[in-house]
Every structure is written in C-alpha cells, then in structure tokens.
Amino acid sequence: xxxYFLVLILFSVGVYxxxxxxxxxxxxxxxxxxxxxxxxxxxxxxxRQEAEAPIMSLGQSLEVFVGHSVDPFPQxxxxxxxxxxxxxxxxLITIALRLYHxxxxxxxxxxxxxKG
Amino acid sequence: xxELIPYLVIIPLFxxxxxxxxxxxxxxxxxxxxxxxxxxxxxxxxxxxGESGEYLVGGWSxxxxxxxxxxxxxxxLLWLIGVVGICSGIYSVKYMERxxxxxxxxxxxxxxxxxxxxxxxxxxxxxxxxxxxxxxxxSYALVGFKGEAEELEASFKYAVLSSVGSLFFxxxxxxxYLAYGTVNMGQLAGxxxxxxxxxxxxxxxxxxxISGVSLKSALVPFHSWLADAHPSAPAxxxxxxxxxxxxxxxxYVLVRVVFNIYGFNRSLSYLLLALGALSMVGGVLLAIGQxxxxxxxxxxxxxxxxxxxxxxxxxxxxxxxxxxxxxxNHGIFKGLLFLSAGAVExxxxxxxxxxxxxxxxxxxxxxxxxxxxxxxxxxxxxFNGFFSKLIIIFACIxxxxxxxAIAAVIVSILTLASFMKVLRYGFYGRLNERFEGLxxxxxxxxxxxxxxxxxCLGMSVLILPLLREMVLVEAEKVLSQGxxxxxxxx
Lengths: 116, 490
Fold this sequence. Notes:
The complex is a heterodimer.
Chain A: H1 2-20, H2 24-45, H3 62-68, H4 72-103
Helix pairs in contact in A: 1-2, 2-4
Chain B: H1 7-22, H2 27-47, E1 53-56, E2 67-70, H3 72-95, H4 102-121, H5 125-143, H6 149-180, H7 185-194, H8 199-216, H9 226-232, H10 235-262, H11 266-287, H12 293-314, H13 317-348, H14 364-377, H15 384-398, H16 402-427, H17 443-458, H18 465-480, H19 483-488
Antiparallel strand pairs in B: 1-2
Helix pairs in contact in B: 1-2, 1-4, 2-3, 2-4, 3-4, 3-10, 3-13, 3-17, 3-18, 4-5, 4-10, 5-6, 5-10, 6-8, 6-9, 8-10, 9-10, 9-12, 10-12, 10-13, 11-12, 11-16, 12-13, 12-15, 12-16, 13-14, 13-15, 13-17, 13-18, 14-16, 14-17, 15-16
C-alpha cells in the first residue's frame, strides 16, 4: 500500500512543478516526472511479491508459471507508454528550442503574445 | 464487411508514412496520395453503414488480442472524420502551396486521421489510449506547423495541457486495471456492473478517465488551450481540430466511458449538465468580444460542444439523439466556417474583422460559405443547426430542466449576435479600398467549401422520420443500451 502513496507523492511533485515553474524546460521535466509516476503505478499494479519475470522456462508447467511470475500485461502497457512519452518529450523539446530562437527566453511570463 | 475495419487505420497510417518519402521525389504526389488515403477511409466507413460487431485482430480473442468494434455511433463519427477530412484535404492542396514541407504536413495530417479512426473503432481502453496519443501528437505538430512565434506558443501550451489530460487517462486505465484486471471495454463493463468489492477504485478510475477526456474535449474549466491552439493551425487543420478532433478523441470517448462502461446515473447526469451549461454559456460570452475571426470561431466551438454535452447529459432518448445530431452538424458547419476563414486569410491576408469589410463584393463564394455557416451555427431554419438545437431544447423541456432550456435559447441568440457582427464587419458594408483588386480563392478551395455548404443543408434531411429511424435513433440506442451493449458482446 505504501508504494502507491509514494507514487502519488511523485505524481503530486510533477503536478506542483507544472503549476509553479516558469521555465519551459522545467515544465517539460515536471511533465516527465508525472509520466514516470504513472508508469511506476502501472508497474506496481502488476507486481507480486517474490515472483519472477514472466518468461516461461523450458519444461515448466503452465500452473507453476502462472503462480510464480508477475503480471506481464502492465509491463507491455508501460513499454508502450514510455515510447509515447518519448515522442511527446522530443516534440516538446523541439518546440521549446524553437520558441527560444523566436523569443530569446525560456520564461513563460515573457512568452505571451496570445491573449483574449 | 467487418474485415474492412482494420483498413480504416491501416490505409491512412501507411499513406501517412509513405508520403514524406515520396514527397522528396515529386511534391505534387503528397497531396494526391493524401487525398486518396482519406477517400479510401471515407468509402470504407460508407460500406460499414448499418454494421455492428467486432473484429479480432489476428484472430486472438478478447482479453489477449486487440478488439476492434463498430456500431452506429462509431460509423457516424467515422463518416464525419472522412467527410470533413476529404474537404480539408482537397482544400489543403492549394492552401499549403504557400508553405514548405508539404510532405511532413500530409504525413501528420494522415497520422491524425489514422489516430482518430483508431480511437473510434477500438474496443479496449489501452488501445484507445494509444490511438488517442497518435492523433494528439500529430495535432500538436500541426498546430505549430507555421513555425511563427505565436503558433509555437500555442502548440507548446496545447501539447503540455493535452499531455496532462492523456496522463490522467492513462492513470485511470491503470486504476481500473488494478481493480478489475482487464482493459477490454466489454469485460470492464461486465465486471464494473457486478462487482461491489472495489467500489472506491471504480469511481476513482472513472473520474480520472472523465477528467482526462474533458481536457481533450475542452469543456469549460479545461478550455484555456483551445482558443490558442485552434486558430494557430493552418485553416484546414483548424477545421479538422474544431470540427472533428475534439469530438473523436474527446466527446466520443467521454460518452463511451460514461454510458457503455460505467453506466449512466443521476449524479453523472448532473455533472455533464453542469459542464455542458458552463461550456455553452462561457464559450459564447468569451466569443462575442473577439475580433480575430478564427479565435471567435474557436470560442464558439467550446459553446457548441456545450450543447452536445447537455443533450447527451440529459440521458433521455430525445436528448441523446439531439446531442449526437448536433455533434455531427457542428463538425460540418464549423469545418465550413474555418475553411472560409482560411480562404479570407488566403486572399486578403488578414483575420482581423476590423480590417476586413465588404468582402462579399470580391469573394462571393467565401462570403457565401461564411453566411451559410453562420446561419447554420446560430440555428436558423432550414439549416442543420436549427433542427439539432431544437431537439436539444425540446429534450430539456421534456426532462423539466427549464433553466437549461432557457440558457440554450439565450446562448443561441448570443451566437446569432456574434455572427451578425462577423457578417456586418467582415463581409458586408463598405469595401475597404485596400481590397479593390482582391481575387477569389482557387477552384479546389471553393469546391471544398461548396461541398460543405451543400451538406449544411443536406444534413437537415436526417430529421425526416425514415432517415431518423435509420441513423440517429440507431446511434442513440447504442448509448441508451448502456453497459448492456458491450457486456453482451462477450
């Protein structure tokens, strides 16, 4: 149970960073922290104590395998989520760099031509 | 016909990957292949009309394999994606000639369509999340496509907020998986309805899903990114974003989760009505003071999405039918309005209503498109917006929500007022001398607008009893069946 609270704290750190930071890169880092928290949560959802990696060894019966391995499904989800996260991260950093070329700053309080 | 379902994703996806490669050889190929890809998806969605059922990818059954499923609601949305997509596609060919990088533009455009089609047909939540991200990431890049300071700013804002929405959605999926051990919609619907054990996790998970999707569909407390992002994109992309994207990855997912997975109840009805009423009133109040044509249209998207949510949030058959009808209609007329705004920008080089004036003398088709779109969005008969708004207002009265009904009427009048302002300042009145020698937009752009103008009138026929039974009532039944729809499928 404690592990879920730790994940929640990590997620909250990310949310706090997103709300409080003014630097574009720090915003991106906060988003990454939130993402890591969600990924950790998914891994925890499939975790079992004293279980093995879900790889079936030769001659192992199905019952033994099921009884001794962690749930592989969240791991598959997390790999996909990490890849998606990487895509978003790359795009965000590219946009942030181009914003720096246009405005000469990473400070969001100075990047505000859109309003209304 | 169910064998065709995966091609809805495969064709746009591969066309999207092929285009950036082929565009290096011949620039004009990209537009051609892009439009053919969208057309293929549209034809498939036409062939799927009236189908309902599942397709198992690779023959693997439900909990292990990927399930794709269609019903009348999905088919309607697929059709909307195809129609607005093909119109924006034809429009893009000329419009995008002014920009470099047509290969990457078309690649992203088709990726977005593949993602939206995928969201609409997918039968499990995690698969839905992946397609939702494909569509979203493509749209972040498209919003910033022009690469100017404002566009990049809007794109960054949109990308960060929308990613937060996606993370909430993913967290919701994780919570539901932790509680119920499945992400398949059908199994989830079955287990959510019978198990009393993990009630807290059930509510928590579904609330996370709803808040994530509300961010994607820009309901009022979550709306701040929309008014920056949608006007900043190139016009055909704005038409896709406002007309289709916020519905396919926002409203559609919201109603699926609320009706077919969680099960509709009284408290959710209040939640949706509150969100809908706030969006409806807030959107129009923010819109009425705008002078940037595209920004004004973006705020009206928030307001019109409010109508859809109110209709669906009533939960009565009439309300749901009106909501779905308005959803389709809004895609058509908002697409038309954004395309006409883009044509004005293309010819006159401005989006500011104060700098326009009398454009109808020089741009007859474009201003006709704006006129029809404005009449349609403000609910003037015989255009499609009138009928869907009428159904929603009747449904409110029938359900005894008189306050909401009055608000809907007032918002409709305010919408009319703000579009009167657009027409008065932008298209009628005295011609600005600057625009004496103005020329109408190219032929292909006019064709795209004409198709949507005809559809603005043509969609009204869905109100006729026979067609209504065939299309709208069928789509409404999908939601009215509630969790029984999916849970029975397995």
